[in-house]
Amino acid sequence: MGTLSYTAIMSIDGYAADADGDFQWAAPGDDVFRFHVDRLDAVSTEVLGRRTYELMRYWETDPDDGSWSDDEHEFARRWRGLDLVVASSTLAARGDASHRARVVGDLSLSALHDIVDESRGEVEIFGPTTAAAAIRAGVVSDYRLVIVPKVVGGGLRAIPDGARLDLQLAQRRAFENGTVLLHYRSADASSAWPEAS
């Protein structure tokens, strides 16, 4: 059985995107991007919503103009090696996804538990909307919060309203541009999964 993790890139005031839906303010510097490359070592499966999936399709094909750095090529290589699960009723109805992605129309906690149970390593659930139910249920084992030195004043919260979590700090790291990684663990996540019916 795998474990479930959640990575969020967020402003100091707790938002993954601002009130206009923009997140360009969170673009990583070189050392932050290298962290994202390295963290994929532990991940075997990525669970993401439709919008994030469509955004991440960028990494499926190398550009022809040679514009990618070595780290971008390495991120793309590791990304392409992940199992992808896309939570989307829209894509499920249209049958529209790449050959590598499994589409789940309804990402219930039971369906998510099956994905984690069948995985050989860390399952990362990405995107605050997709991860909200799992966070509220307390089934996420690891939280990697990448905090960007910006205050955006509102928008999409990285941690959903109603979540109550008791976490222990596992790692902290400061990057050159003032971005900070806070990695927390939940001791109770494995026992928080609802009983199978």
UniProtKB/TrEMBL annotation:
Residues 5-181 form the Bacterial bifunctional deaminase-reductase C-terminal domain. InterPro entries: DHFR-like_dom_sf (IPR024072), RibDG_C (IPR002734). The lineage of its organism: Bacteria, Bacillati, Actinomycetota, Actinomycetes, Micrococcales. Pfam families: RibD_C. It comes from Microbacterium marinilacus. SUPFAM superfamilies: Dihydrofolate reductase-like (SSF53597). Gene3D superfamilies: Dihydrofolate Reductase, subunit A. This is Dihydrofolate reductase family protein.
